[in-house]
Amino acid sequence: KQIVLLPGDGIGQEVIESAKQVLEAVTERFHHTFTYHTHDIGGAAIDKHGTPLPEDTVRACQQSDAVLLGAVGGPKWDQNPSHLRPEKGLLGIRKQLGLFANLRPIKGFDQLLHASPLKHEVVAGSDLLIVRELTGGLYFGTPSERRNNGQEVVDTLSYQRHEIERIVDNAFQSARLRRKHLTSVDKANVLESSKVWREVVEEKKADYPDVEVEHLLVDAAAMKLITNPRQFDVIVTENMFGDILSDEASVLTGSLGMLPSASLREDGMGLYEPVHGSAPDIAGQGVANPLATILSTALMLRHSFGLEKEAAVIEEAVQQVLEDGYCTGDLDVKGGKQVGTKEMTRLVLERVT
Amino acid sequence: KQIVLLPGDGIGQEVIESAKQVLEAVTERFHHTFTYHTHDIGGAAIDKHGTPLPEDTVRACQQSDAVLLGAVGGPKWDQNPSHLRPEKGLLGIRKQLGLFANLRPIKGFDQLLHASPLKHEVVAGSDLLIVRELTGGLYFGTPSERRNNGQEVVDTLSYQRHEIERIVDNAFQSARLRRKHLTSVDKANVLESSKVWREVVEEKKADYPDVEVEHLLVDAAAMKLITNPRQFDVIVTENMFGDILSDEASVLTGSLGMLPSASLREDGMGLYEPVHGSAPDIAGQGVANPLATILSTALMLRHSFGLEKEAAVIEEAVQQVLEDGYCTGDLDVKGGKQVGTKEMTRLVLERVT
Ligand SMILES: CC(C)[C@H](C(=O)O)[C@@H](O)C(=O)O
Ligand SMILES: CC(C)[C@H](C(=O)O)[C@@H](O)C(=O)O
C-alpha cells in the first residue's frame, strides 16, 4: 500500500513521525507492506512552493491508497490573501480527491472524562459518530462573489441529489455497524436543500429497515448535543452544519487532543487527520500529543484497508497507555505521568508489538 | 402606546395573558397608557383563516409600537405543506416588519444554575448577549429552488452591505452598554459573505474605540461557548449561525424556560417573545411557565420605549420570586414551591406593584 504523509505545519511534523512509527510497527507485525511518501501542504507548502497545495502533492495523493495529514495553519500565514492561506490546501485536497464523507467518532476516555466541561452524569457513556458531507454545500457552491460594486455579497449552498444520497448511504452503513440509530440534521423549515435532504433520508430508510431514523433541526441538535449527548449514535448532516456540530461535539468529552477523523472517497481511499490544530505555540518542543494522529491511523486501517484487527490493536494500545497512567501536557489525567511526544510514541509502540 | 398581542399556539395563550397582566400593572404604576390588540398567528391562524400570517395581523403589527408573541407550532400542523406551517408566520412577520436584529440575553439565575448540563465552575458567572441578524442570509436569499428535474438544489446566502452594517452597529451599541467586548462570529476562511462581514466589523471598530473586538470562526465559537462561556460578552453573527449558536447558548445556564428575546426594527419598534416553544404537551393545563414572556415585556419596555426603570422593576420581581423559592414545573429549583401559571403571575404582580 502507498501512503502519502502530509505533515503540514506546527506540530504536524512531530505527530506524523510518531504515527508513522506506530503504523510501521503494526503493519510489520501483521506482515503488510506499506510504503511512505512525504509531501508538502499548507503553510509549509506556501513557504517552499508559493502555494498551499502544490500539484505534485495532489498527484501523489491521487496515486496513493491513503493519506495521513498532520495539521495546517499558523500565525505566520494569517494575514495572507485568501488563496495563499494554509487551509486552502486542506479544502483543495478534499475537493480534488473527492473526499465527500468526513467521519468524526467522539467517545470519552474514562481517564479524561473529568476534564469535560459537562457534568459527569450528562456526558458519561457518550459515544457518537458525526458523518459530515465534505465536498458540497456552502463550501464550494457558486456563485460566491461580491456584486454591485461591493454593495452585495452572495454565497451558494448547492447540492446534487446524488451527493446527498451517497453521504446518507454512508451514514446508514455506519449506523448498521454501531447501535443502529441515525439522526439526520437539517433546517427543513427554512432551506430547500434541507427539504431535499430530508426526502432522501426518508427514501433511503427503506433500504435499511434495521436502522432507526430521526430528523432533527440543526438548532435543536446544537442544544441536545449538550443536554443529552448520550441520545446520539450516528449523526449525518451537510457540510457547514457538520463543521459546527462536529466541533461543538469535540469538546464534550474532554478529549479534544485524542480525536481522530477520516475523510473518505467512494472507493474507500481516504485522508486521515487529528481533529486538533497545528498548535504553533508548542511546535518543535517535543511535547505534542501524538495520540489523535495515531488513532487516525487506526481509522485508516479500518476504513481504507478493511484491517479491523490491526485497527483494534492500535486503539487498545492507546487506551492501555492512558490506563497505565501516562499522558502528554495537554491531557488532564489525574495523577498521570506526563511524558513527551517521543516517550508517548515508545509507550504505544511497546503495546502494539 | 399600541401593543399587539400574538398568543399563537400551545401555551402561547396562557403566557401572553400572564405577561399582559404584569405589563398592565407596571405601566399603571408608572402612569403610562398601553392599549392591547390581540391577533392570530401560526397554527391558530391556519385553523381560523387558512394562513399562518393573515394580512390583518401584519397590518395591526405595522400600526403598533410593539408586538408580544407567545409561541407558534405544534404536532397538529407538522405534516402541512411548507406554506401552511406555523413557523412561516414567524418568518413572515420578521421579514414584513423588517425586524433585523434579534437580541438574546443569556444569564444564569443562581437558583437554576445547578440544572445546567455544565459544571458549576465552567458556567457560573456567564452573562452574554447574542445579537443575531434576522432578515438576511440563507433565510430569505434567492434563488432557493430545485433544478434539473430535482437533481440539484440551491439555497442562497445573500447580504446587502448595509444589512451587515446596521446589525454590526447595533451590536457595538449593545456592547457599549455592557462589558464593552464584542465577538464577531463568521466563517471568513470559507465564505465570501463572511469576508465582507469581517471587513465591516473592522471598519466600524473606529466608531467604537471603547469596545474591544475579536473575530471568531463559527466552529471555534461553538466550542468556546461550552468550554468557556464566561469569555463572551456580546456575540454578533449572521442569521443561520445565530440560529444555531443562540440555541446552543440557551441551554448552558439551565434556564431555558426563563429566556426572553427581542427582534428589533431600525426605529426601535420590536417583537418580543420567549425563547421556548409552544409546549403542546402541557398547553391548557395551567402549568406553563410565564416568566420568559414576562421578561420579554421587560425587554419591550427597555428597547422599544426606553423605559429602563420599568424594565428593571419587572426583572427584579422575577428574580425575587425565584429567590423566594417559587418555581413552575419545568424549573428545577431545589426545594422550590411549585406553582401554576396563575399563581406565578400573582407572585410577580405582588412584587411589581
Ligand atoms: C479549516 C477549515 C476550512 C475547515 C472546515 O471548515 O472544513 C476546518 O474547520 C475543519 O473542520 O476541518
Ligand atoms: C422556527 C424557525 C424558522 C426559527 C428560526 O430558525 O429562525 C426559530 O428556530 C428561531 O430561532 O426563532
Give a nutshell description of this structure.
By secondary structure, chain A is an alpha/beta fold. Helix content of chain A is 41%, strand content 21%. The longest helix of chain A is centred in the N-terminal third of the chain and has 18 residues.
Please count the helical segments of chain A. Answer: 12
Secondary-structure element pattern of chain A, one letter each: EHEHHEHEHEEEHEHEHEHEEHHEEH
The CATH class of the largest domain in chain A is: Alpha Beta
Structural shape of chain A: globular
Low-confidence stretches of chain A at least 5 residues in length (pLDDT < 50)?
none
Ligand list: 3-isopropylmalic acid
Total domain count of chain A: 2
- The multimeric state of the shown protein is homodimer
Percent helix range of chain A: 40-55%
Number of strands of chain A: 14
Mean pLDDT of chain A: 97
Main location (chains A, B): cytoplasm
Function (chains A, B): Catalyzes the oxidation of 3-carboxy-2-hydroxy-4-methylpentanoate (3-isopropylmalate) to 3-carboxy-4-methyl-2-oxopentanoate. The product decarboxylates to 4-methyl-2 oxopentanoate.
Subcellular location (chains A, B): Cytoplasm
Pfam family, one (chains A, B): Iso_dh
